[in-house]
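Notebook B, p. 112. Complex prediction, attempt 2.
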Amino acid sequence: MRRLMIVASSALALSACQTVQNSAGTPTTYQDPATLGAVKGVGIESQDIVSMTDQMMRDMLTEPRLANAATAPNVIIDAEYFVNESSSRINRNSITDRLRVSLQRASQGRMNFVGRHYANMVQSERNLKRQGVVDKATTGTAAAQKGGDYRLGGRITSQDARDPRTGMMSRYTQIIFEMADLESGDIVWSGIYEFSKAAADDVIYR
Amino acid sequence: MRKFVMAAAGLAGLSALAGCAQVQEPAPICSMAGIAAQRQLVALPAAAPGEPSPLMEMPLNSVSITDFNVINKLYVRSVGAQRTATGTVKVYSQIINCTDYPLNIEGRTQFYDPGQAPSEPVSGWKRLNLAPRTSNTYSETSIGTKTVQYYMVEVRETR
């Protein structure tokens, strides 16, 4: 009987501890994408994308064949020929999209941008106009979609190293950007962005 | 005789000390007091006559070290700008690591028009690695051409 009383009183005391933790959870916080965030690893992160696209955009504007031609060249900037051979998981479009948008906004007519990634969309609408399904709209017709004078290519590569004793990991990442002449194959501009990071934390990129 | 021995020992000690002085400190040798004395901040006009200026800042066309962590570790040896072939402006600055340790810093540039208004968005941060007691050159180019007249470079420790 005495044991039963002790068990019962202990259970009562424990149940008293089970109260609602009536407080707010950790709020979502906005971070500066141009600076190292709260979660950081050895891969390509937002500050790298912001920094590299800004550097490449500014550097392209110093190349006379791109930014000072008598007739503004037609350029294609997308991820079609921008390959990822590194061990970092990354959506290549996040680099090429940012580069294209920032370059177009900055160039102010010094280059024309061809949306080759929209070629199917444009062709579909052209077909509808020519079949008479829709009218000709307001900006007039073109004989064909624009061809490109230059197109972006590039490659992401990396070299990993891990210390099995400490778990410390380092990764050297190299990202190259090249603009190729679409008639001759000449590379008229190139840029490189590289970094090496070391960390012990296990960060997963998605 | 004893005095003679002591004098000889003293001379030997002095010569030993002189030998120590032969060990030279590698250049560059930064005089932080001199560097601080060279820094001349400019004042924004006060809101009303007789009131203090609300802001003291580095003058345009200079490098502003914005970080307590590195302000007494770096020396800005030179800063300048030139036009590129396409008319944009290239800013360059040679920065010296005054310490015996490697430093990772980053810089960015804001370009201004002739009216001293920002002529374009501030550039992204660009990293610069400085080995002990070495220099490296930061550079950045503008987006605009004729609209660019002034610039301001900001430097901090890499984050």
